[in-house]
């Protein structure tokens, strides 16, 4: 927070990887020092760390995005988060998404409840696409993405942090989150478990269960919503 709204140094990572700031690197260094000291046998996968494929041989792996929503952070907006998850094998088993500017925290663990600020949360029960609120980007609405040749009659909204989008679905403030683009694991690992434990169906864009700590460290898009709405969305996509 000492960097936020204080003109942090920032630069572009190149290769369409987007911007990074000195705050991203400082948070990453702090988390790595703290977490790896506590669990030295865990693997490490972070957006801001050099690739270390030894993580693929670890039973457990930290999957971290030090600041998700870096553009919002640079702009002085509140919609950025820290996304921290633990995978066991290829499944996420513990998750935290924290929005420091809002002092709001979402948590979940395998077989436990999804919580926001310590209180249980649950996904929307909406069962039709008419007027559903979907957190996604503009290009999703292009006609070629939909079997009917036009997008369903949902209302599209956007939030800068992908991890936060998944949590907003988990708490029922929005009905779904959808992306047809490949999603990096560090962006979605924590939010995917929080949404799942809140009752959402959580898959890639094809309706296939997500797998984590993969060699590519990415998932083929995402579709996250209550079970009925999720099936409607996935079945409507090309």
UniProtKB/TrEMBL annotation:
Single Gene Ontology MF annotation: inositol monophosphate 1-phosphatase activity
Source species taxonomy: Bacteria, Pseudomonadati, Pseudomonadota, Alphaproteobacteria, Rhodobacterales
Domain of life according to the entry: Bacteria
Family listed: Belongs to the inositol monophosphatase superfamily.
Protein name in UniProt: 3'(2'),5'-bisphosphate nucleotidase CysQ
Annotated CDD domains: CysQ
Annotated positions binding Mg(2+): 47, 65, 67-68, 187
Native species: Paracoccus tegillarcae
PANTHER family attached to this UniProt entry: INOSITOL MONOPHOSPHATASE, INOSITOL-1-MONOPHOSPHATASE-RELATED
Obligatory cofactor(s): Mg(2+)
PROSITE patterns xrefs: IMP_2
GO BP, one annotated term: signal transduction
Keyword list, A-Z: Magnesium, Metal-binding
Pfam families: Inositol_P
